[in-house]
């Protein structure tokens, strides 16, 4: 594959990374992509590389695809061009495996959801891009959530004396018995939402007191403590059935959630980011969800780079 086209693709990749480019930049990239078969082939490599990045946690992907300072931009472009020339699943895939959640006991890819039945009869629903480890022995049962979101239905332990069911995260441990609850890892803070029963939230720091989160409550927590309990909306767990339930949700937030279920970029124009949106949107058919938004609200869905970039903005803009 022509090295010049790969370097140009790397340049566009850096310019447009994380939606930093303007609409004019995206249109210019689209014109460049269509200008020659070599450009189109190089951009296909970009799409495959970006898809791989999206399937690992941001803490792993972003250092590989950081936005370099101007002084190092030429070197960064050459480095990215080398990555683009490598076959996906080769050296790059191995590096991401070694550094990330690919070694987890269970994981889901972007857009995938799956249910696990555990040895004790408990069930765990894994959301998109989720990774966890299992722990079952004579003294303990539970999972360690590395990344993503899970909904747990903790069964009563068949052994005697009963072992508590625990979900460990980077920031604390949630202990439950015959309980239904959701745990979501979101970067520098996590969230627990209890639908049935109660969950005891403990921390590694001895100076941080444990907290009890009861049915109908949710709370945010990090390594240093827990927020005040808030009222939980059970509709937030609709993802288990493949739906995103919105009740006057800001459009920017809704699109951020939908973006987790597709490869590529789904961007919200800041002009309409605060628009309150309501409805039930299918997570297994993001195109249908976008069509619903476009049909109900004064919005336009614009696509570029063969559908890899999608921007939702005001109609007629």
Automatic annotation (TrEMBL):
Residues 7-49 form the FecR N-terminal domain. Residues 107-200 form the FecR protein domain. InterPro entries: FecR (IPR006860), FecR_N (IPR032623), Ferrdict_sens_TM (IPR012373). Pfam families: DUF4880 (PF16220), FecR (PF04773). Keywords: Membrane, Transmembrane. The keyword ATP-binding does not apply. It comes from the Bacteria. GO terms for molecular function: sigma factor antagonist activity. This is Transmembrane sensor. It comes from Stenotrophomonas acidaminiphila.
